[in-house]
Structure formats: C-alpha cells, structure tokens
Write a structure and sequence with these properties.
Radius of gyration: 19 Å
Shape: globular
Strand order of the largest sheet: 5-3-15-14-13-12
Helix content: 25-40%
Structural class: alpha+beta
Strand content: 25-35%
Number of helices: 6
Largest sheet: 6 strands, mixed
Length: 340
C-alpha cells in the first residue's frame, strides 16, 4: 500500500538520526538504495554548496551506481556522516569492486549538507561518522515501503525556512505508465515558503482550490514572523536538499535531467531560490525495475514532470510537519503554529 513517500519506490529505504538537547539541534538522513545500488545523478544550483562525491555522478565518469545518498546537518563538518555510511556498506561488501576479495569494495555515497551550526546553542554539536551509521542502520532496519518520519527529524532537525522552522518532507506519485516517482526534501531555505500577501504556502498556490487563512490570523502571523526576524538574525547560510527516486530505468544522463527539472519543484515553493548563500542540491536515483518506453522519444517527460511535482509537495509537507523551536541558538515559529 502506498504511503505517499519516497519509499513507495520499491527498494528505497530512509533512516534518520536525530540529536536534540544539550546544545544539539541537528541530524542526518540516509536514503538507502537496494542491494546492487541505483543509477545516480545530481544537479547543484545553489551558489554555496557543501557536497561529497558529486563528481562521481557526472555521466562522463566511470561510476555507474550508488549505494546511498546522505543528507546531513552540520554544514561541511557534517559530511563526516558519509564515512559512517561507507563503513557500514563496506562491512556488507556493498560498493564498487576494486579487488579479488568480496570485501574489496569502495561504496559510492554522495552527500550534501545544510547549514545549521549553532542552532542548538553549541557550534561544535554536529553530525559525525557515528551519526551517519545510526541513520543508515535505521534505514536498513525499516520495512519495505515504510512511512517516513517528517518534520524536525534527521537532516531537518535544525533546518529553517526563512524565519519559520523547516524540516524533512516526502511525497510520491504513481505514473500513468505504471512507474513510481518519489521525493524526499530537507527544507532549510534562505528564501520564504509563505506568500506574504495571503499567508498561503507558495507550494500550494496553483494546486487547485486553496483555503486562505482569515485576515486576522494572517496579520497575527505576520507580526510573529517580523518579531522573530528582528529578535534573531542567523547567518544567511542555507540550503534545500532533495532526493528524487524512481523505479523507471534511466541512464545517468536521463537521471541528471530528472535532478535538474526537479529543481523547478523547489522554485515553485521557495522564493527566492538558488542564491549565492544557498547550496541547493538535488540528487536523482533510478532503481531500474521498469523499462522506459524507448520507442517514445518523449517518454521521459512523465518522469520529469512528476519529479518537480513531488519535490513541491514534499516541501509543503515538510513545512506543515515542522514544530516550533526556541532555545539558546534561536527561535523559529512553525507554520502550523501560526496558521493552524
């Protein structure tokens, strides 16, 4: 049964490791591919990305499949979390075979980070290899097709969406051709997710009938957001990360196109986007269970459109699931707290 999550793509599992309290407000999320890996690609649009192993995903390069994608807090320091995921995969002989023994492998684990340093109060409280191992173990222990925790968990624990609390969200869609496309997003944007004139989430505009908040609710929310912005001025360093997965068989070049078009889903829900102080990055994964109709030169369009749509919906879900946070590192009201 579908759960409207990236895990609706058969074989994809998600695990979170979350650290809160004692100066901590951060975590790591791992999207684990099935045994044998998945075709992977990436598209980076932000001007200040923090990434690992993204060059390996270039269609011109030799790596064909990746074992997992790591999304993590901690800025560039948090990329250490990928080492824990690599160690876990190595112990299971998963990765690119580079020697005669089964254990002679190098797991390919692309990673990207969001800036959340100091948001729990301690600048040095950030994910490490142990956090990454905990997240991949959680992914491996989950059931096939399991629901994915959303909101202030994993890499979204310390995330902010403008002056609001950000977080993790996910969504999926079944294609008319029978395939599935799913997305998981970490919303930590410098731009706003809310239309200032109406209080409606940008990601919900143009998606059918939208119920606008009452004027008095919107005015009260605007005052709260202005107060939050005035009381705390965090460093203008942010990033929105996404993983878009499908069971449709794609080449690396086609997967890269999917990652690129999926950025449109961010642009619909966050304004402005892809700034110099953002690190906006989208990964694409293809498990290859369902063949693409090679006789139709436009068959990929259905997958591309679904990728952007699921990213937008995942952003809306992340913001709606987030809970308010107030502590030594700052205070972020949540959209649900302000608008219900």
């Amino acid at each position: 049964m579908a759960v409207d999550a990236v895990t609706d793509v058969a074989g994809i599992r998600v695990g979170h490791a979350t650290r809160v309290g004692g100066g901590w407000l951060t975590g790591t999320t791992v999207v684990l591919a099935p045994e044998g890996g998945a075709v992977g690609a990436v598209d980076v649009r932000g001007g200040g990305p923090g990434t690992k192993e993204t060059d390996a995903l270039d269609p011109r390069n030799v790596v064909r499949r990746v074992e997992a994608v790591v999304l993590t807090g901690g800025s560039a320091y948090g990329l250490d979390a990928a080492s824990g995921v690599m160690a876990w995969l190595e112990e299971r002989g998963r990765g690119v075979r580079v020697g005669p023994e089964p254990g002679h492998v190098v797991p390919v684990v692309p990673a990207a980070c969001v800036f959340d340093l100091g948001r729990g109060g301690d600048f040095r409280a950030r994910p490490d290899a142990g956090t990454g191992r905990a997240a991949v173990e959680a992914a491996a222990a989950s059931e096939a097709g399991a629901p994915v925790a959303e909101g202030c968990v994993g890499a979204g624990t310390g995330a902010a969406a403008g002056v609001l609390k950000g977080g993790v969200g996910t969504a999926s869609v079944r294609l008319g051709s029978g395939g599935t496309v799913g997305a998981l997003v970490v919303v930590n944007s410098a731009g706003s997710v809310v239309d200032p004139e109406t209080g409606v989430l940008y990601g919900e505009l143009g998606r059918g009938r939208v119920e606008w908040p009452p004027d008095q609710v919107h005015e009260a929310a605007r005052r709260r957001m202005a107060e939050a912005a005035a009381a705390f001025a965090p460093p203008p360093l942010n990033t929105t990360l996404a993983v878009v997965a499908t069971d449709v068989a794609l080449s690396k070049a086609q997967a890269q196109k999917l990652a690129g078009v999926a950025h449109d889903g961010i642009a619909r829900a966050v304004r402005p986007v892809h700034l110099l102080n953002d690190g906006d990055t989208v990964f694409a994964l293809s498990t290859g269970a369902l063949a693409l109709d090679e006789a139709d030169p436009l068959a990929l369009n259905e997958v591309l459109a679904a990728g952007a749509d699921t990213v937008t919906r995942a952003i809306v879900r992340a913001v709606r699931a987030a809970e308010p946070v107030a502590g030594a590192g700052g205070a972020w009201p949540s959209y649900r707290e302000l608008y219900g």
